[in-house]
Structure formats: structure tokens, C-alpha cells
Amino acid sequence: MAPAQARAEQHATRAAFLLPGFATAAWAPLVPYAKNRTGLDEGTLGLVLLCLGAGSLLAMPIAGALAARFGCRAIMVITLLMAMVALPLLAIAPSPWALGAALFVFGAGVGACDCVMNMQAVIVERESGRPMMSNFHAFYSIGGAIGAAAITTLLSMRVSPLLVCVLASALMIALLAVSVRWWRRDRAPNDAPMFAVPHGVVLAIGVLCFVAFLAEGTMLDWSAVFLHEVQQVPQDRAGLGFMCFAIAMTVTRLLGDGVVARLGRHRAILLGALVAAVGFGLITYAPPLLPALAGYVLIGLGCANIVPALFSMAGNQKAMPESLAIPAITTLGYAGVLAGPALIGFVAQASSLVFAFTAVAVVMVLIGITSRWVRV
């Protein structure tokens, strides 16, 4: 492949990661508007929000099978268009049922694209001959930061939610149009199975992904609660923890491919897991705010390269075709994001948040240790 074409495919893959990150973050500032418009209380809103996760989890394995048959390009275009069409509907859905239906379509589009973009990334990384997955995943975070900032700014300027969503979708269409010609059209052989239950090394990688995403989900949903309720940080400053985590993760992923290249994937996972475990220990047992915030930074540094390295391992294993392996570990990983915060809540209810966060630190150490036996 010509160097110019390879670079174009790499940039287009970064755009493929940025787009669903942007779309997901664009929805977050709209949640209060949707809640008020539909008259939902907190409990019912939580149930409606499950539609987004349900759409994602159901669409991922289907998207992987379709991508194997029709190529990554076609499926990424269709799924991104689903998300772009659903986004304005989220701004005008008049009832809980309509909101749930729009969230299901939106979640299916974003989740399916998340799955297929990793399939594309595995192919592009393998052809480059060097680690690139951390950098690709960094652009998902960058898309999220841009989306959250842009949508929040427009809403603060009193632009209507519907117009904000239309503008966001138009911007996504423009980036899609620039990138689409460089997305892959590789197809699986005609005799390749459409679905398969993950087994062997793929199942092991998927379980590790579940735990790694569980840790990330814990930061998303529980970091502010922990700072406020356990460490008595004022509520208006409780978001500092997640901010430190997110910045550290994004920067580390931008630079992480060099680290993975020097250490190798197994050592990078082990080191990252141990650093994250130390971070969880700091935020749990260091009462002053500054050491606690340093803990959030360490969690971001540690978690940053674990999931990208696991996806690269899934792309290099021979037990299952990557068109089956990538959807399997993506689905298991996102199950960790959805189930993790709930598990933390159950454990905290039975004991305490301190015990729950300590348990996450322990399982991060286990990720590092067990990853040594996952050979591809």
C-alpha cells in the first residue's frame, strides 16, 4: 500500500472514532431538557436511559456480522446516519415512549459504529506494522470533549436544543463525507460464520475488557459521588475527579502507542493495571483532596492503554475471525460499562463505597496478573 494511502486510512480511522464520541457527548447535555419535556422523575428516567445501552448491546454483534459480509465502510455509514437522524429526535421526543425509542435507535447506531470502527482499526494497525490503537481510542475521547463543549456552549447561548442537534448532525455528516472514501471495504470469506459464541483466548480477552470497562464506568458514574459523600468535597467541586481522570486518559492515549511499542502489550497492560490500582488506593485512603486528585490522574494513566491493547490482541489472535472476535469483546466491554456502576452500587449498599472502590483496585491487579497468560 502506498504511504499516502496508508496515512489517509489512518486519519479516516481517527475520524471514525471521533464521530461516535462526539455524538455520545452531544446527548449528555440534553438529558435535563429531555427529562423536563417528558415529565420524568429520576427513577423513570433511569429506566428510559437503559434503552440507549440496550440498543448498543443488541446492535454490536449484528453490526460485526454485517461488516464481515458488506465491509466496514457500509456499516459505519449506515450506523452513523442512524445516530445523526436520532439525535434531533432526542431533542423533540414528546413522551417517555418516544424518547426511549429514539434512545434505542441512537444507542444502536453509536454502539454498532463503536464495534465496526474497532474492526477497521485492527486492520489499519496490522497493516501499519506498529501499535496505533491507543491513538485511535484517544480520538473517541477528543470527540467527546469537543461534543460536550460545543453543545453546552450553544445551549448556554439559548440556541434551541433542536437546532443544536441539527447543527451537530450536519457537522458529523460533513466529517463523514470527507472520511468515507478511506474506510475499509474488506469482507469475510463467504463460508465464514455470521455468529459464534466467544471461546478460548477471545473469551479471556473479553472478560478482561469487561473488568477494564467496569473501572472506567466506575469513574464516570461514581467519582463525583465518592468525592462528595466520602471525602466531603463540596458538590460544586466534586466533578474535579472525573475531569482529572478524563484528561489523563486522553493525553496518555495520544502518547500511548510508543509506550506499548517499547513495553509490549502484556507488560503495558500489567503496568497500567498496577498504576490504576494504586490510583484507586489513593482516592480511597488519602483524605486530602490533592492526593485524591492525583489518584484520579493515576487511574486515567493506568486505564488508558489497557483496552486498546486488548483490542489489538483480539485482532491478532487466531482462535476466531476478527469479524466475530471484535464484536464479542466490544459487547462484553460495554456490558462492563453498563453493569459496573450498578455492581458498585450493590456492593456499596451492602458495605460501603470505600469497600467497593477497594474491590475495584483488587480486580485491576488481577487484570495485570492474568493478562500474562493470554497469549495470541
UniProtKB/TrEMBL annotation:
Record's bilayer topology term: Multi-pass membrane protein
UniProt keyword annotation of Transmembrane present: yes
Record carries keyword Ligase: no
Compartments, as annotated in UniProt: Membrane
Keywords noted in UniProt: Membrane, Transmembrane, Transmembrane helix
TM helices/strands, residue ranges: 12-33, 45-67, 74-91, 97-117, 138-155, 161-183, 195-215, 238-256, 268-287, 293-312, 324-347, 353-374
InterPro entries cross-referenced by the UniProt entry: MFS, MFS_dom, MFS_trans_sf, MFS_Transporter
Domain Major facilitator superfamily (MFS) profile: 201-376
Protein name according to UniProt: MFS transporter
Organism of origin: Stenotrophomonas oahuensis
